[in-house]
Structures are given as C-alpha cells and as structure tokens.
Amino acid sequence: MDFLAVVVLGLAYALAIVFPLVLMPKILDARGDLPYNSVASRLLAWSSFAALVVAISALGPIGETWDASRWALLLAAIALAAAWDLYDLKTRRIPRGRHPDR
Predict the structure, then answer these.
(1) Looking at residues 85-98, what average pLDDT do you find?
(2) pLDDT at residue 9 above 80?
(3) Is residue 67, in this structure, part of any structural domain at all?
(4) Is the separation of the CB atoms in 22 and 62 below 8 Å?
(5) Is 58 domain-assigned?
(6) Residue 47: count of CB within 10 angstroms of its CB
(7) What string of DSSP letters covers 69-81?
(8) How many Å apart are CA 94 and CA 99, to the nearest integer?
(9) For residue 100, is it within any domain?
C-alpha cells in the first residue's frame, strides 16, 4: 500500500471518529433535534460510528484478510464501548438544565 493510500485511510478513520461521536451530537443539540445527553442521540452516534468504521475497514487492506469472526469481534468491541457510554450517561449525576461541557 502506498503512502497516499495510508494517509487517506488515516484521515477517513479520523473523520469516522470525530464526526459521529463529537460533531453530530452537538449539531443535533444545537438544532434542537435531539438533546446532547439523550440515549437516542448516543445510540445514533454509536451506530453511525460503527457503520463508518466497518465500511472504511472493509474498503481498506484488512477487508480482504479478515474473516467473519474478526468482524464480529470488532462490532462486539464497538457495542461494548457504546454500552459503557450509555451506562455512564444513565448513572452520572448532572444537575438538570446543565450541560456537562459548559
């Protein structure tokens, strides 16, 4: 794989992390569509992150070498991270009407 392909793949992974997990919840909150600290917002963010990471990985060099069990492990790791995030969201004490980022 040449250098340009590695750079493009790295940028695609960076955007797959930044857009769904950071920017999308803030944009939806600013528009008033979904509150930042809602379960629906987090589920949407994690599912779009999983879809982007799997699509980018399938198009990259590991797409040809990974078998189904490795793909299942990747999705299980993402699901575990999402479950951990949702558990933290539900158990964290934040005063009503306050954003955790402000």
Answers:
(1) 76
(2) yes
(3) yes
(4) no
(5) yes
(6) 14
(7) HHHHHHHHHHHHH
(8) 8
(9) no
Whole-angstrom Cα distance, residue 96 to residue 78?
29
Query: For 28-72, how does the pLDDT look when each residue is reduced to its tens digit (9 = 90+)?
Result: 888 888 888 888 889 999 999 999 988 888 887 777 788 888 888
The pair phi, psi for residue 38, each rounded to 5°, is -105, 155
Sorted by sequence, the CB contacts under 8 Å of residue 5 that are 6+ apart come out as none
Domain count, the chain: 1
Give CA–CA dist 67/101, Å, rounded: 40
Q: Is the pTM of this model over 0.85?
A: no
Domain hosting 51: range is: 10-91
Extract the tokens encoding 94: 């934040």
Instruction: Examine residue 68 and state whether it is found in any structural domain, yes or no.
Output: yes
Nearest to 50 by CA among 79, 10, 85: 79
